[in-house]
Design brief:
The chain has seven helices and ten strands. By secondary structure, the protein is an alpha/beta fold.
Length: 234
């Protein structure tokens, strides 16, 4: 069991960036969708990223961007990963990622009737289309762009896919341990679940969320050791 990676999305303030880093976040997300309350300009993101320490990645979230929009962001901040969150096509994502030479994740908004095979087929299509594809980010379906702050049915995620996905959608301090223990994703992504208001993070919630994820990892590690020891005695 690898350590579950942690991304805090929707960073707009220096103090929130520091709180996320102090809590052990592996990546921070910056939203470039003007209609979002967490929107930041490329210039503002560049200012914020000056406080990023080594090995903490900067992720840029876009909704149906043009190549020019992504290039503007890439020119102003240390862009490590693109997150496509709109209606972008497979070909569109691949073309933009290739043009700016950055890896990307694709948000997939899971509906109640989404089939496990559909998730596997989607991942396969993106992997076939682009060497820059890193994986799927699974969020909850709503008739809008961006996060919904709601949980979807985690049982829809195929077990063979789970270790490669980023789990999002309605995660909070209250359900983070259960989510990681049940799904065992590669990473989790949280935004509204660690906020005191839209676009304003709560340092205590960030720290508690990170602790909840670590608690799940500890439970899984203990279960794994127990199973191995039991098999060894058998």
């Amino acid at each position: 069991m690898q350590r579950t990676r942690l991304k805090i999305c929707g960073i707009t303030r220096e103090q929130d960036l520091r709180a996320a880093v102090d809590a052990g976040a592996d990546a921070l997300g910056f939203v470039f969708y003007p209609k979002s309350p967490r929107y930041v300009t490329p210039e503002r993101a560049g200012e914020l990223c000056r406080a990023l320490p080594p090995f903490v990645g900067a992720v840029a979230l876009f909704v149906n961007p043009s190549l020019e929009e992504v290039q503007q962001v890439a020119a102003r901040m240390p862009l490590g990963l693109i997150q496509f969150h709109g209606d972008e096509t497979v070909e569109g994502c691949a073309a933009i990622a290739a043009a700016v030479q950055r890896p990307f994740v694709r948000a997939y908004r899971v509906r109640p009737d989404t089939s496990p095979s559909a998730l596997l087929e989607c991942e396969l299509a993106y992997r076939a289309a682009s060497a820059w594809f890193s994986g799927l980010l699974l969020d909850t379906w709503v008739d809008a762009y961006g996060g919904a702050g709601k949980v979807f049915d985690w049982s829809l995620i195929p077990k063979e896919l789970a270790p490669r996905v980023v789990l999002s959608g309605g995660l909070s301090v209250q359900n983070a341990t259960d989510a990681v223990e049940r799904v065992r994703p590669f990473a989790v992504d949280v935004s509204s679940g660690v906020e005191e208001a839209k676009g304003i993070k709560d340092a205590r919630k960030i720290a508690a969320f990170a602790a909840a994820v670590r608690a799940a990892n500890a439970i899984i590690t203990e279960e794994t050791h127990h199973d191995c020891n039991h098999q060894g005695r058998a």
